[in-house]
Amino acid sequence: MEENPLKLRKIHHIQFWVGNALQAAEYYRRAFGFTRFAYAGLETGQRSLASHALRQGTIRLVMSSPLTADHPASGHMARHGDGVRDIAFEVDDAEAAFREAVRRGAVAAIEPHEESDEHGAIRRAAIHTYGETLHSFISLHGYAGPFLPGYREQLVEGSDAGLLRVDHVVGNVELGKMNEWATWYSDVLGFKRYVTFEDKDISTEYSALMSIVMSDGSYAIKFPINEPAPGRRKSQIDEYLDFYGGPGVQHIAMLTTDITRTVRTLGGGGVPFLSVPRSYYESMSERVGQFDERVDTVRDLGILVDRDEEGYLLQLFTKPVEDRPTLFFEVIQRKGSRGFGKGNFKALFEAIEREQALRGNL
Q1: Count of domains observed in the chain
Q2: Cβ distance 12 to 60 under 8 Å?
Q3: How far is CA 328 from the centre of its chain?
Q4: For FRET with 187, which of 42, 228, 276, 322 sits at 20 to 30 Å CA-CA?
């Protein structure tokens, strides 16, 4: 298999379609510490979509709202609520990446075209992935503006929480579709199967899921793909699919090098985190071995710890950040481990199930 056939460089940004982009952007600024740095809308000549771009470390999030009822985003939000529309890649050549992706089996969404303003020009195209999610390809060609053509600088600083980059983006798909989409990422993007989790790995008394993690050759871009597994009750994936109205992005994991500082900062901003029973920490030292952080610190903050043969990781998950129980975020710190916290799956699932039960969805 040819490695990196589309010449993907990195995730350029993740675009959300939301009901009120200004308010969503302000939420992510105040709660997560993102800085609002660029804006596109009526004042910049954009007549159909208003967008606010946010940044922290190398993470770029874009909150976009339709300005007209006939914009596709209006129907998208009626079906799904607020959620991720586009995981956009920076590439060497957007047109070449698009043509190669389509040749490999991708369905075209947006044909290659130029976008320009007084700061220069870019090339852009997009393909469909699971559900109504897109992958855009963007080649910048030395573009010198604050973000992308049509945006102007609009700086509103946030309180940086130490979030550095996107670690992985998780998609939920229907039962029986996980392998199909894993094959798609292999055939179209040239990704490799990094790890597979069976239902016996990710299960509780009531529910289970299966997951395949797809990764580019450098392991910088990782896309776990989940599907529900049969269980006694409704799994978190079933709940997501019901309320999102189909497949989509379940959560975005963001890397930090100091999770205790990051979690304290986010908690102070009002970010709601899942909680696990204190009993989880009683046997932590036996299960995980020695680690640098104080047990009482990670316990008080509700941080999960897991170890594999390469090292250990620390992670914590937010509750859904939308009114529908759909999208949430993960904060992760890696100390050698390149895994996904397999040893924490049971505790995490039980925490999610407690929230499902409160919502009447278990």
Answers
A1: 2
A2: yes
A3: 8
A4: 228
Q: Is 1 inside a domain boundary?
A: no
Regarding whether 60 and 187 lie in a shared domain, the answer is no
Q: At what angle do helices 236-244 and 345-359 cross, to 10 degrees?
A: 50
């989940």: which residue's tokens?
Answer: 226
242 is in which domain, residue-wise? Answer: 163-359
Kindly give the pairing relationship between strand 59-66 and strand 8-17: parallel
Distance separating the N- and C-terminal Cα atoms of the chain? 42
* 156, 172, 200 - which closes a domain: 156
Query: What CA–CA distance (Å, rounded) separates 227 from 14?
Result: 22
pLDDT single digits (tens) 106-160? 999 999 999 999 999 999 999 999 999 999 999 999 999 999 999 999 999 999 9
270-324 pLDDT, tens digit each = 999 998 888 888 878 788 888 888 889 999 999 999 888 999 999 999 999 999 9
How many Cα atoms occupy the beta-carbon half-sphere of 325 within 13 Å?
20
Please choose, from the candidates 322, 266, 340, the residue with its C-alpha nearest in 3D space to the C-alpha of residue 83: 322
Which amino acid is present at 192? K
Output the six-digit token pair for 291: 């680690």
Q: Tell me the CA distances in angstroms from 181 to 138, 147, 195, 203, 281, one per residue in order.
A: 23, 31, 14, 22, 36
User: What is the structure's pLDDT at 231?
Assistant: 67
Q: How far is CA 352 from the centre of its chain?
A: 18
